[in-house]
Amino acid sequence: MMTPKRTAPGNGPRGAALYVVLVVLWLTAMLALWSARSALFNERLTGNESDYQRAFEAAQAMLDDAQLDIQQLQVDGMPCESEADAPLKCRATIAEHWRFDASGLPDMLAHLASFPTGCAHGLCVRRDGAQDFWSDRVLLAQMTAEGVGARFGQFTNAAASTTTRSDADLQHAWYWIEILPYPTPQIALLTRFQDNTPVRQFAPHSARPWMVRITALARGQRAGTEVVLQTVVVQHPLE
User: Fold this and answer.
1) Which one of 1, 45, 110, 153 has the largest count of C-beta atoms within 10 Å of its C-beta?
2) CB neighbour list of residue 172: distance below 8 Å, 6 or more residues apart
């Protein structure tokens, strides 16, 4: 009688299973890597957005502080009063102040124009040429130098606690106030309109024939985060 031959078990099924396991492991690793990269991207995106919002609020705080500076008011709305231990408060001891009227405007503009940047202690003459000085790194370095740009609370004595921003957010923030005079013929033309007309309501007062343009710049904690805000203010003397 012939005995059946025994054949050794083949390696085909076992080899296929090994390949399947390797493919599954590779796909799992790729999925984990993709999830990690997605989480890192979302974290960076959220961090950049948060840093931008903090810089935006810091720039807004600078605009608010500049308007108090212009109106010579304190945070509580009361008139600004100089203090012996705060020599810059209310601009009481410096040449760049708001204690001038139409007759003193030319002297103030001439004083500011004597500086290389046209600015001193946050007050500036009207800029000529390109208006976005913050796009020029060299010029921006000059504009943010000590005694050129104004810092938060420097002339109002406001503290960071009066805003939603911390000292760290306001540490890299400045504002500049450009004095924009109205030509004399336009001032004479404005007097022909009645006081209750929109032209007179939004035009400079004859005693203060100028507008101001405030530029506020704030940098975030991350490199590349920078916010610039501008507004125009027409100041009318309090009756």
Assistant:
1) 153
2) 218, 219, 220
